[in-house]
Amino acid sequence: MSVLKDKVVLVTGGSRGIGAAIAKRLASEGADVAITYVKDAEAAAKVTKEIEKTGRKALAVQADAANPEAVRSAVEQTAKALGRIDVLVNNAGTAVPNSFENATLNEIDRMIDINVRGVLVATQAALKHMPDGGRIISIGSCVGERNLTPGLTAYAATKGAVKMFTQSLAREVGSRDITVNNIQPGPIDTDLNPASGDWAPSQVVNTALKRYGKVDEVADLVAFVASPAAAYITGANLTIDGGTNG
Fold this sequence. Notes:
Layout: E1 8-11, H1 17-28, E2 32-37, H2 41-53, E3 58-62, H3 68-82, E4 87-90, H4 105-127, E5 135-139, H5 153-173, E6 179-185, H6 200-204, H7 215-226, E7 237-240
Parallel strand pairs: 1-2, 1-4, 2-3, 4-5, 5-6, 6-7
Helix pairs in contact: 1-2, 1-7, 3-4, 4-5
């Protein structure tokens, strides 16, 4: 049964990694899906083609999450092309590992612009096109709850902001039956944080399962939160980190 049949989804940063897995997973549940991307049009086109193979509509919009006007435009283009936005997945994010003492203002600003302001701008714009019963899902991080990794102090601060934004907004839009939730992944095998990378051993040792997570595992949790089965879950921070924070 397609639990998201004929729903419209917007996934920011949906051309690769976790975002691409989410976009394809929600399409498999019957949704029409729009994604944003920054530079790699070829990767975005690959995702939309895979979605279209399932018989669903797909749209790729170039938009840097650090650019508020681009983000608003992407939301408007999605609503115009697909009719509305039932589910917003704030997936676009970035990390610039560095000790806080040595972090540059440009590095800090980049993370704030994408991880915090980008989420707020996309959500505010999408709410204008979201019917009652919609879903807002942000991809935070387990370090927004508890950070064990030196070099991620500023990044953890931005993800902690997403956590509080989620809890607060849930109170404001609950009367519209819109749920707002935050998915907090731990180490997930992507091209930005590969399980074979230099940072992997220190992250794996902190997990209970002693492995990296897979993008499809995160996508499965997002699909559940987007579904009718999760209608009574809101303001929640759902951690999927292999026991890192356990």
